[in-house]
Amino acid sequence: MFWALVLFWLTIVLGLIKLGRTLSLPAGPAGHSFTVFTFVAVYSLMTLVTIYLAMGASWARGAMLILFIIGILPALPLVFAHFAAIPLAATLTCAQGLAQIVGLYLVFREPAASWFGRPIER
């Protein structure tokens, strides 16, 4: 469970690095506002779900899986295009995807799966 949480936090840190790299590039006609809004919305939700995972909330495993699926679908076509134009962002996106896959694997397999099923002590 510890390593899964490390990987999820790593994904968030890599997202911060990607945001910094993106903001250092010239902005389009609308500026960087959509990028910043999207980052804040998505990564705030990821941070919240990661915190709930650390607390043992079983539903957070499913929520993280859903976030991964929603995030990976638009990222796949973009990452291939970005390797030519923005190789650092593409590499960080691949690292994020790999960290998420391994982290999800760890929270859905034993012993983490039974850890999430334990009764909550008060």
From TrEMBL:
Where would you find the membrane-spanning parts of this chain? 34-55, 62-80, 86-108
Name the UniProt key words of this record, in alphabetical order. Answer: Membrane, Transmembrane, Transmembrane helix
User: What is the protein named?
Assistant: Uncharacterized protein
